[in-house]
Amino acid sequence: MRTTLTTEGSTTIEVPLLDEDADYPPSSAEVFFNPSQRVSRDITVAAMHVLGEGMSYLDALAATGIRGLRLANEVEGLEVTLCDWNRRAVELMRRNARRVGREVEVVHADATVLMRERSFDVVDIDPFGSPAPFLDCAAKCARRFLWITATDKAPLCGAHPKAALRKYAAHPLNTEYHAEVGLRTLLYAVACALARYQKGMTPLLSFSTMHYYRTLVRVERGRKKAYESMRHVGHIHHCHTCGYRRWQEGFCSPADVCPVCGAGLHYCGPLWLGAYKDDSLCEQMIGELEHMKCSEGAEMMRLLKEELHVPTCYDYHVMARRRSTSPPRMDALLERLRAMGYRASRTHYGGTLLKCDAPSELMCTLP
Ligand SMILES: C[S@@+](CC[C@H](N)C(=O)[O-])C[C@H]1O[C@@H](n2cnc3c(N)ncnc32)[C@H](O)[C@@H]1O
């Protein structure tokens, strides 16, 4: 395998030379490496800076080891373990650990076995595609924090309903807020996995990008905590005709018709209806990411921090199309909603998506 050196943050490691003509260059070498995940790794480093020292951290699917090695090198006092079942990846990780000059543990194992045998304060799951096969053992293994990446956005967003049913035991709907539905469906699956081990969760940071979701949850032990977190699981009834939606805790409620246009409502769920981020952590991370010169990450945290804690968002272009009118400027619409006495915000899901705490009946009559 031909390799080259790359630097992220203050960490330099050896990575495979990728075939840029391949269908998917990150998988073109014997060991996986995706340079475009740098922002995700910057955000991980920034969050671990804020959350503190003195914890053990497992990079369960480590590949080159870049994520865990950056944490070992850039965050004081983390005890890092890197695991992969690919022998070439493990050889590369060992060389990289020597190059970085930090003491890290490198384990050549099936991560699902390692996670059943040992536990760590922080567990990080960054798989190819879906994290579903790892959720159960990661939930067992994580003592304090759990990071999960999912690149299978299509099933989570409702574009592949059969895959969503198989992997997540859920029926996400493909709506104008499909990106948020996907994130909340992932959080539902994480909450269920933790609850089986009598653990609850508080999501601290969750975001959606073009290619992946990433979430960080605080793990809370005890039957009561598990029960409390499952109380945040609910469902949405959505009208595909006018965009009306309503949400409710619990797994189901009687089918109904849309109170705005009379069309049938469609079930979407189960999904997490609670908060998916901690605003003070987002605030602290803006400073950390600016300090790291990660402007993309800092901008993401700024948008996340401003985002209202309301399930579902509205695409104002779709709203305008439904009413056969041209869309107003986003700022003008937000101002109008605020002038009506509601809270309204942009979202990190996209430039045309907004959140508002006005009743859905009203939102369906706008703009
Ligand atoms: C997407 S890559 C990880 C990328 C890495 N976290 C990064 O930031 O560059 C997934 C890795 O998981 C490894 N893997 C997949 N299933 C595994 C398992 N059950 N146990 C251990 N490693 C596994 C693969 O060999 C691959 O290196």
Automatic annotation (TrEMBL):
Amino acids binding Zn(2+): 239, 242, 258, 261
GO biological process, one term: tRNA N2-guanine methylation
EC code(s) of this entry: 2.1.1.216
Keyword tRNA-binding: yes
SUPFAM superfamilies in the record: S-adenosyl-L-methionine-dependent methyltransferases
Catalytic activity: guanosine(26) in tRNA + 2 S-adenosyl-L-methionine = N(2)-dimethylguanosine(26) in tRNA + 2 S-adenosyl-L-homocysteine + 2 H(+)
Top class in the EC scheme: transferase
GO MF annotation list: metal ion binding; tRNA (guanine(26)-N2)-dimethyltransferase activity; tRNA binding
The keyword Transmembrane is assigned to this record: no
CDD domains: AdoMet_MTases (cd02440)
Chain positions recorded as S-adenosyl-L-methionine binding sites: 41, 67, 84, 110-111
Keyword terms, alphabetized: Metal-binding, Methyltransferase, RNA-binding, S-adenosyl-L-methionine, Transferase, tRNA processing, tRNA-binding, Zinc
Similarity comment text for this entry: Belongs to the class I-like SAM-binding methyltransferase superfamily. Trm1 family.
Function: Dimethylates a single guanine residue at position 26 of a number of tRNAs using S-adenosyl-L-methionine as donor of the methyl groups.
Protein name per UniProt: tRNA (guanine(26)-N(2))-dimethyltransferase
Gene name of this polypeptide: trm1
